[in-house]
Write a structure and sequence with these properties.
With 674 residues, the chain is of the alpha+beta class. Helix content is 31%, strand content 16%.
Length: 674
Amino acid sequence: MNNIVEVYGIKYKLPEMPESSLIENFELNKEDQKFYKIEIPDYFDELEFDEDGNPIYSDEQKDFVIQEWTRINKGYWYYNDGEPTYLNGLHYFYLNYWTLEDGTNPDYRDVDRRYFYFQEHAESLPYCFGIVRIKKRREGATSQATAYLVWKSITKRKSFCGIISKTGKDASDAFVYMVMNGYRNLPIFLKPRAEDEETKTELVFKKKKDKKKAKSREKGKIFDDDIGLESKINFKNTALNSYDSGRVTALLMYEAGKWPKDVSVNQYWPIVKKTMGRGAIKVGFCLIPSTANDAKSGGEPYKNLYDSSNHFETPMTASGLYRYFCPAYDGYEGFIDEYGKSIIDAPTDKQKKFIYEKFGIKIEMGSKEYLINQRKLITDKQQLSEEVRMNPFDENEAFMIDSKKCYFNAEKIYNQIDFLKEEKVPMRRVRLFWKDARTVDWADDKEGSWLVHKFPADDIKNKTIEVNGVKMPANNHIYSSGIDPFKSSVISGKGSMGTCYIFEMLNIKDPANTGMPVAEYVGRPRLKSLFHDEMLKASVFYGYKACYENDVGDDFVDYFQNKGFKGYLLRTPQVAVDRHKRRQGNVKYGVASGDAFALARQLDTCISYVESHCEKIYFYDLLEELLAYDHEHRTPFDRTVAFMISLLSGVSLESDKPEQKLVSLPLKTYKLGV
């Protein structure tokens, strides 16, 4: 048996498997081998207690207690449908001894087994301080997290555990209805003494003071040796200074994808993270499970934290956290068989029978097809995006914004994002360079600022025409561009990026592969002149007139003119000028987004393009930015602005295409039959 299990980017090492005969369920037939909750033996009905309320175990009772403590610390092997299966200690505790808020006990699910493997592995790493877990609705993540707080408190002395949520009331409810409910229902041999078992604020695992005994001490006894575990669990209100001092052993940041703007999760985490380390030593661990609100209602900070927790790219992540996601169809309620396995695809007859006998429902399809059909039934876009976000198939869907708040067709954008994940669209990272004073070429460069899908054909590279003695680009009928510059040369902190999209206009002879963005530039050189030089090189190489957003100044005009390339700048497109305000003279270059008419035309053109041609956008980051784009506060959306301008300039240049000469062809004549 392979002792390494891969779970969402980590490799979990199973403990050594016992001999087959020592594994639980060995003696059962294969079809009867499944998880059975441990039954407390009847001989515990005879359990006695001393005068302090402490249990007095018989040898038989003591053996059972030792067995269970060993299992909740070191794990448990059993046969499940013929396969040796390992549950780690926390999972065993959760299944056998945890009581959910509705009074029931958790069922065994294979999807949970894999998550508990992931959590144990992440917690064992000295550089991982927690897990950002984006989840589906009713996944059980919060119940598992509160069980973890109690498990940690009773297995590790002096544990300090806490809960914080989107509101103080939510944190209080999680403490009262989950933590306290679970604690009260523990059997006596797993239930440490607490100062107040009915508390609604803080559960302290400390033996109550006996005032009579405190007065009479034994000779020479200067330390108390029976003061309890000294662990505690509490909750705090939602504030940036909650749990910002002292030491935190385990923390549940509940529903962090819905926190208020003034206490966003990506602001709070760096503060509380400091309490989980002592120098280079990790002393705490944090669980951050949540569904996400849409990006504009709290989901964006959570997504930022999730993105910075990408352990697939590097073991030591920027946030110090690992991220976790499981598709909604894996472990979906009503599609889990008697062995805890997910019924994702078409069910077997045995699975159909089990589901019908347990739930009284007949299933003829797997969970994935069922959820897809549920989506098809929803016609309201807002309700559909909510359904997708609550039952996501991938991480992008989990953070899906509300369709009514997205200016573009969010469904089509997500479909294209999914396509790009499955299909490897050819892209090259390159730099452009001057071969001579008027000729540009390219070279592969991993650090290059240009990402290119298509290059111009060899016969049109650097192609020019001469008009009234002035050299101009010859490919205006093929390419357009949109350029969003930055304001200043000196960088102090994070600023906007200089961005450009090159757009290849539609060729009716090849409609599937034209009418699309073909190159992207995103960069922030230290000097604006270096940025303008990049834009000039692209204009010369592809042979088009560059179209700048001119709100931050027109220094680009001087740059192009001084280099002898003023003919490579595009004047303000007519489609971006209100026809009632058009005037002759006073030539301007580029697009003024500060002009309300031009701004509206940019958005309208982009909406139309996404609606009709979204499948032609191969730039992943642009698609993601289109989802989050805010037209009223568009400064951070450099890619979207540049893309809009490239579309607008392309519309303008449609009228500048070279005229095609009409050729008269001789017509054949035919005699009509009578």
